[in-house]
Amino acid sequence: MRIVNYENKREIERVIERSLDLESVFDIVRPILRDVKENGDSALIEYTKRFDNFDLISENIKISENEIMDAYSNVSDPFLSAIRHAHKNIEKFHREQFKQIKKSWKIETEKGISITEKIAAIESIGAYVPGGIASYPSTVLMTCIPAKIANVERIVVVSPPPISPAVLVACDLCGVNEIYRVGGAQAIAALAYGTESVRRVDKIIGPGNRYVMAAKLLVFGIVTIDMPAGPSEVLIIADSEANPRFIAADILAQAEHDPDAQCILVTDSKEIADEVDNEIKNQIEDLKRREVITQSLENSYLVLTRDMNEAIEFSNLYAPEHLEIMTKNPEEIAEKIKNAGAIFLGNYSPVPAGDYASGGNHVLPTGGTARFSSELGVRDFLRCYSIQKISKVGLSRLRKTIETLAEVETLDAHSNAVKKRF
Known about the structure:
This protein is an alpha/beta fold. It is 45% helix and 17% strand.
């Protein structure tokens, strides 16, 4: 990890303005989207063979009920216990979230004019679950539980083949309606446009690599998406009383996600920075994904500040996906945080708890988008619409205002639509 002094503003700006260059990725993804749109299943079969080295036929693009039931005999009892425990907490949090969202409300803006806002579930969603080399049943829980609680009628999961039994079991526990063994940009195209085997959806959610992210951005407008999620990241604010072993362990946990993942330690203690650096060197030796972690750490920084105010300022500018606060007074620091996907307070609130089982959602805004985006939740599966009821008396009270504004905008048909009623 490179050490950067907060007073070096040019270097700090480079750290904050991290971004993926998607232009070259767009050029690769566009033809894939077009091919799937025009050729359907045959394109899915071709790209699955090319990118996943997996032989598909139209008949087995969709996972069968028998395959889902068989998956239970191919996972361990400890896994079943763990996934059910995580499911319980995630469901509990999101059910409470749903209760806090008003179902509908009504207001009378003036006599004879009432407007009701209704909230309804999106009818169908597609969740992208990364796979292939690794297995992510936790992502099934995070994307599908809030959709189910929001009363989405049709929940679809796509994932690169081979799909692990653990993912299939998670899908069954979450009440997923359809599962398709396709991944990458071609899976996003199938969800957006539909094929002979895959029915299109209204919204696409879930994390993925840069090709998946680029595909989601390119189909936005045909469907809606949750957020342009990029490589995972953690920022840790630590003072002189923090535990270097815990900090190093949490940095390594984040770094093992992806070679493009980024880890930032912000501290006003040079001693803590040095101790964390040494701990990382010691702890990495025992980890299986050392190569991935090493690449990730090349993108990562130790930021030295003069005090905690500068650390808070940097954090708000960086707007991290995950923010851990390991200080004497984490709650006080958290009160001053404006931009973060999720915040974890104190020595015993590591990001992996949120990744798996505490109950909060792990689909979070990355790349600084926490400045304007939120974690995935029940509200992402809901839409609002208004119902207006205006009496003749109510319309008469608006008549002059409408006619005046219509005249200014030279829309005389708008004005006539009111005049004809009188």
